[in-house]
Amino acid sequence: xxxxxxxxxxxxxxxxxxxxxxxxxxxxxxxxxxxxxxxxxxxxxxxxxxxxxxxxxxxxxxxxxxxxxxxxxxxxxxxxxxxxxxxxxxxxxxxxxxxxxxxxxxxxxxxxxxxxxxxxxxxxxxxxxxxxxxxxxxxxxxxxxxxxxxxxxxxxxxxxxxx
Length: 163
Description:
The chain has helices spanning 9-43, 45-52, 125-133, 137-161; strands at 59-65, 76-88, 91-102, 114-123. It has 4 helices and 4 strands; from the N terminus they run ααββββαα. The mean pLDDT is 90. A hairpin with a 2-residue loop joins strand 2 (76-88) and strand 3 (91-102). The longest helix has 35 residues, at 9-43. By secondary structure, it is α+β, with helices and mostly antiparallel strands. It has a 4-stranded antiparallel β-sheet. Helix 1 (9-43) crosses helix 3 (125-133) and helix 1 runs antiparallel to helix 4.
């Protein structure tokens, strides 16, 4: 008797959607905390001094620990933002990145360790602070990161289950 190797397409789609939704919700549900931390950091003189003292290529990362409701479905364990310094003969720039770390788990083997938006804002410290405070920045970046995480998980889980 032959094994039935046909995949149930609806089961694959439902599972991929479940994983995607779990990760999208953890990002959306915690982004306000991260955004508030980002705003406070750029308003803090000690943080700004720390950035100005970086060497070119140096990075400062600040994050919050995540506690997913369902540890078996959600691998996100840290939501963070980082600021990277770049310098040339023309000036000094900073790049703001925002992302999520994914913990290792037996089912997460070989999967991504981080998902992020690498250049959410670019400029000197005042320009980045201005962009962060601008209307719609928080909503736009939160939506972009949540969609990126959701789409990545959906595609990855679907590919794994189709084998």
